[in-house]
């Protein structure tokens, strides 16, 4: 008969799996945090990737406007192959 894992521990395992942190050090650090903080950390990491993409787009705009290929106020659509594929 398998015993059920406590909810907090299950959440820790799930969040660590989603974040890709399977190392014992990260797992033990995650176990010390309450469940709510773990989910906030996961959401913050997703927001971080969005912020990073926004920064890349701003850099593209600056580079193109610096060499005269972009008019002021014109939007640039950077390629979708940004953060995730670069890592």
- Please count the beta strands (DSSP E, at least 2 residues each): 0
Instruction: Indicate the overall shape.
Output: elongated
Number of helices: 4
Unreliable spans are 78-87
Helix content: 55-70%
Assembly state here? Answer: single chain
Radius of gyration: 20 Å
Write a structural description.
With 87 residues, the protein is mostly helical. 2% of the residues are buried. The longest helix has 32 residues, at 35-66. The protein has helices at residues 7-19, 24-31, 35-66, 83-86. The chain contains four helices and no strands. It has one domain (7-86). The N and C termini lie far apart (42 Å). The protein is 66% helix and 0% strand.
Question: In a nutshell, what does this entry contain?
Answer:
The protein is 66% helix and 0% strand.
Spell out the key features of this protein.
single chain; about 90 residues; mainly alpha; 4 helices
How does the SSE layout of this entry go?
Blueprint: H1 7-19, H2 24-31, H3 35-66, H4 83-86
Helix pairs in contact: 1-2, 1-3
């Amino acid at each position: 008969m398998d015993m059920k894992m406590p909810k907090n521990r299950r959440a820790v395992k799930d969040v660590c799996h989603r974040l890709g942190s399977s190392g014992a050090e990260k797992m033990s650090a995650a176990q010390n945090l309450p469940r709510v903080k773990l989910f906030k950390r996961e959401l913050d990491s997703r927001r971080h990737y969005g912020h990073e993409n926004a920064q890349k787009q701003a850099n593209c705009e600056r580079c193109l406007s610096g060499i005269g290929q972009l008019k002021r106020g014109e939007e640039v659509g950077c390629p979708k192959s940004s953060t995730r594929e670069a890592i």
